[in-house]
Amino acid sequence: MPGARNSAASIGNMDMKLEVVILPVTDVDRAKEFYGRLGWRLDETRPGIVQLTPHGSGCSVQFGPDLNPAAPGSAMNYLVVSDLEAARSALVGAGVDVGEIVHMTPQGPVSGPDPEGRSYFSRATFKDPDGNTWLVQEITTRLPGRVEAEETSFASASDLASALRRAEAAHGEHEKRTGKTDPDWPGWYAQYMVSEQAGSELPQ
Using CA atoms, how far apart are residues 50 and 37, in angstroms rounded to an integer? Predict the structure, then answer.
């Protein structure tokens, strides 16, 4: 059927944005208080549904009576941050019991952040009152192909500030290597930040 083939061929170019993850909880008010304590924005919804959105996130969480048939505590989701130590400190300051930071090795998790500062390697976890698990992972440089270069964007001012600080540090090393001041630092910063998100080769 030609029509079916055309539909299949074009669906890869169709925007489909992940909007909401539904959490299984036993006590809606308790869950609302917990996620509100994290500073997540309380969104307006229809009656019977509570929706909150993490700062800088395009995806929200929802919960409500009989909204998710899964067992409370069975969910596991990822939160991505650009500075795991700062994020963990903020969570602990909000009264959340967060596990220690670990980094992944071929032998399994090892205590402490990744000594090389590599993306995807450092993480910490916490649970909500129902036992739903959140894995907080530090990512600054994406794997190749994860983000298209022409789609580079920053979800929040804090994300942009972190990227600028990393570009500034890298540019300082660039000037040390060349032994001269780089007058086109804005262009270098821009190329560094785009390459970092796209997972392509960073400027030297």
Answer: 14
